Amino acid sequence: MRSPILPSLLVLCAGSAAALAQSVTVTRLYREQDAVSTPTGDFIGLATSFNGVAVNDAGVDLVEFDTDHADTNADVVVLRDGVLFARENDPVGVGSVAVSSFDSININAAGNVAWNNFFRNATTNTDSGIRFNNTLVLQEGTASTSPAFTPGTPYVGFFEVRGDDNNDFLVVASVDDPAIPTTVDRALVVFDYNPSTNTYTETVLWKEGDVLPGMTAAVSDFGTGPENISRSPNGQYTMFTVTSVGGATDSIYLNSTLIAQELQPSPIAGRNFRILTSQPVSVNNAGQYAFRATLDGDAGSDSVIFRGAEVIAQEGGEVPGVPGFQFTSFGTGPIFVDSAGGVTWFGDWNDPDTTRDRGLFRDQQLILREGDVVDGETITNILGVSEGYNQSPDGRYVIVKVTLGTNVDAVLLLTVGGGCDSIDFNGDGLFPDNTDLEDFLSVFGGGPCSTGTCGDVDFNNDGLFPDNTDLEAFFSVFGGGPC
Predict the structure, then answer these.
(1) Is 108 in contact with 117 (CB distance < 8 Å)?
(2) What is the distance between the alpha carbons of residues 272 and 346, in angstroms, rounded to a whole number?
(3) Residue 4: phi, psi to the nearest 5?
(4) Would you say 423 and 39 are in contact if contact means Cβ atoms under 8 Å apart?
(5) How confident is the model at residue 426 (pLDDT cuts 50, 70, 90)?
(6) Which pLDDT band holds residue 403 (cuts at 50, 70, 90)?
(7) Cα Rg of the chain, angstroms
């Protein structure tokens, strides 16, 4: 992983939040007014805001910027690990057609990107397309070759694209199949892609008009938002939301298995699913899944995050790590289930101090909170919205858009676990000193912490009962050495 622009670092003493809490290191990757240049050093402009964000298991980030470049047809850029990856007005390779904007972004383990782009200098019937990295794979207007459609059926638009580690990708596509009564027809299509030849085969998983298992009426649409589909990195599992005719039984599916359906019982006794339309979903390589849903009954407890049938968080429930407060909402952003089954999610609670009432969680651990300070700047807003944050499939990295200070946009990278905790062991915010050493030795020996907020004495986060390796790691880091 690259060194961040204007590197800054905050290590949260997160071990006090729960017995199994992991260390969280926060690095500021980008900040408003950062300079953006081409790989050859030509200045493009200063960052003015950030759009989509993504990160993979290697910690390689993908971030879309707006800049103050004078040409508003060339002021949006996408950086991969700090290096210019794509830019508005890049040529597509078809006549004078060029990129006009980027849809939501994602990145696989090898750093490859499959995405929907929109085009200028094209007709209204050809003004979007799927690219693999910067290679045009499929342009709007191209006829499908899948036998699931009437021969000659054209693709007339694309919504979300989710690539996997095989370089294949799942697409929520619009087609115009004369066998389907409506003018624009929706389908979930997997493209088995060969990057070396830029060729593919198509597999239509489901399409408008199909009756899925557990449904009594045909599908009229699929969720088209960035969080409404999920593709496991190994490509074995697809999770998605659907709308049936009449809209009475919107549902969530894992492959062909019905997971949740409106008007049907939820895992919480006596509460049925009420709203599943366009809810965020996530699935990992083992088929473990998580989703958010709205239930019937009490409006103060109707929003719930599930991992399978397990409740991870519920509106009105207690806030982990912040005693005395209850959740009021979970935002409109995504949720993620990592390879070990951990779930990352956003929460908002009823603290009257609205400068401290939002945060990101990993299961029951608060990993980032409004009011935290990064490089001398206070986090005043965590964007719990669509495309506001993203997570690597293994859960080690979380990338999030925030506001710093009065009104400064920034992108942070959270590294969760997998390393030593902070040597500011007692979390007093002071430069690590003898009080941290004394507190570590006291807690290690079963004694008290002077501040009451000391970290975990499993200092190296190896999951073993604290032993001499934790002592050695602490003394090494305390002395400026490696973990």
Answers:
(1) no
(2) 23
(3) -70, 150
(4) no
(5) confident
(6) very high
(7) 24
β-pair type (373-374, 389-391): unpaired
The residue-averaged pLDDT of 284-289 equals 96
Token pair of 415, please?
């590294």
Q: Which two tokens stand for residue 204?
A: 């239509």
- 102: tokens are 């980027």
Parallel/antiparallel/unpaired status of strands 377-382 and 373-374? antiparallel
Beta bridge partners, 410, equal 31, 402
Position 3 pLDDT exceeds 60: no
**Distances, alpha carbon 339 to alpha carbons 57, 284, 379, 396, in Å:** 10, 6, 29, 10
Number of other CB atoms surrounding residue 368 within 10 Å = 26
For residue 375, which amino acid is it? D
The whole-number average pLDDT for the span 323-347 is 96
DSSP character string of 31-58: ETT-EEE-TT--EEEEEEEEEEEEE-TT
Whether residue 424 contacts residue 432, with contact meaning beta carbons closer than 8 Å, is answered with: yes
Residue pLDDT, tens place only, 224-268: 999 999 999 999 999 999 998 876 789 999 999 999 999 999 999
Which of the four pLDDT bands, split at 50, 70 and 90, describes residue 419? low
Please tell me the chain's helix, strand, coil percentages from 3-state DSSP, rounded to the nearest 5.
5, 40, 50
- Per DSSP, the chain holds a count of helices (H) and strands (E) of 2, 35
User: Tokens 């407060």 map to which residue?
Assistant: 325
Residue 282: closest CA among 320, 314, 244, 252 = 252
